[in-house]
Structure formats: structure tokens, C-alpha cells
Amino acid sequence: MPYLGIDIGGTKVALLLERPDSAHPVRLRFSWPRDGGADADLDALASAVTRIAADAGLDGPAGIRAAGLALPATVREGRITAWPSRPSWIALRLDAVLERVLPEVPVVWEDDGNLAALAEAARTGVPDLAYLGLGTGVGGGIVLGGRLHTGPYGGAAEIGHMLIDPGGAACVCGRTGCLQAVASGTATLLRAAALRGTPVDAAAFRTGLAEDRPWATGPLRQTAAALAVTAVNLGELLQCREIRVGGGFGHGTPGLVGRIRAETQRLTRPGVVPPVIRRAAHGADASLHGAVLLARTGGTARPAGTRADRPSS
Question: Which of 95, 72, 106 is nearest to 1 (CA)?
Fold first, then answer.
């Protein structure tokens, strides 16, 4: 029976169904309904699960052996307590969400940045690394000694909410100066749009970079500088051997990783080896592959005792 991974983002959702009898996984992506609220989101997600099961030749979602869910929201005691990108989900019980979307299918869940870090460590064999996922926000995860680093109370490494400029740009979390307020794809494109005087999407931004337009290259330099500061600090605090950069914006923006690498080397103090900066081995899909890994292992891919395999009741 196949395993399903679901990567829930702030604007888009990706699904990957791996079948043991086939080398070709089934993929599906969709964007959240506009202004539909949590009910519309959950209906769309349940419909996508039904579609991918049909595409894989299954009789229905019940044919899925287990599912792993990568989730960017903050969850406390089984309830979603914060998710700026989908505020209508706040206060939902995660067990009720999973039962509605995947009835009768065993589901394990984890923070999307944590799963991305696990997937990168498993793919590369690097035991000490940090992952930075750049998209709507900035997700992150840390693996040390081959194990996910979650701290004494579990949870995720909220690298995107590290303070790098307390008096800086406003973050959707309600604070100012967070990394993601500077270095997310959303923040970078907004700065480019302000300089250009017209809206800028990812495709236009890439074109601007290719044409060496200041409205594109300037914001990219700011983003790379903020991420390099983060990389140097992670190296100093945790001695991370590598920093892997992924996410839709991180993977799809030419020249970004090279700029982060050069700035990281410049900021590293004498006598210290800087972290190696590389693109994510899984590209934009590290969290998605981590979700499948979680499904295959039944949750044992993360350290025992940090979080419950199922949301608490």
C-alpha cells in the first residue's frame, strides 16, 4: 500500500503519493481557495486527497497505508494557535482536521521546516545541518548528530522568527525585525515592487535579475545579506556543518545561494570555518519528501518523546 505526503503551505499545497510497486510517485498541487475560510480549505484538501488516490489507481483514500503532514502552523495541545497566512484555521483541533481530510488513514504530522531538515539530512547523509525554506515565509529546521533538534519542549526551530533587526520591517506575526520580514519570497518581491512602482511576481523578478535591473538586484542583495547573518549565527551557536536553502523562492531564484555563500564567507570571523551553503537536495520539495518519510516511518523519523505521534486529545 502507498504512503502519502502532504505539504501544506500558506498559499499552496503539494501532495506526493509513493507506491512500493512503482518507481514513479504520483504528484498533485493546488492553490488554496481565495477567501473561502477553513471549511473551503478543508474541502479542497479532502478533494485533492481523493483525486491523487484515483490517479494512483486506488479505490479511494482508504487505500493509503499512512500519511504524513507537513504543517507550518503553531500547534499547542492539539489545537492550531497561530498561522498568519491562514487565520481562519486558528483554534481548529488538528485531530478533527485530519479525520475530515483523511478518515480511517493513520496520519502523523510535524512542522514543515523540521520535516524538510530531516529529509535533507536523510538524502545527503550530513548529520549536522540547518534548513532554510524561503517562500511565503521562512521555515526552518535543524538536525544535529543525525537527530532533529527540537528543544526540551518539542516544537520547531523558528528560524524565520529570529530577530535580525528589531527596528526593521513588520512581520505577519505582529513583531518587527524577524528574518522572514526581510528574507521571505513575499518580503523580497514587495521590496522589488516598491522600487519598480508596479507589482512584481516571481517570474518578473527572475526576468529583472537576468536583465540586471536595480529593482530586482537590490532586494536580492538585502535578502542574501539577512540570510548570511542567519547562517553565520547558526554556525556560531550550533556548529552546523551545512545550511541547505530550499522552498519555492529559495530554489527558484537564480544567484541567491551564491550571494548567501559569498556574504557568509565575508562575515565569518578569522580562524573559523563557515557553514557550507548549498541548495536543498530536494529543491522546493524538501518538506514534502519529509512528510512521506514521516509516513513511512510512522513518526519514528523524529526523536522519541518530543511530540505525540498523533495530535493530543
Answer: 106
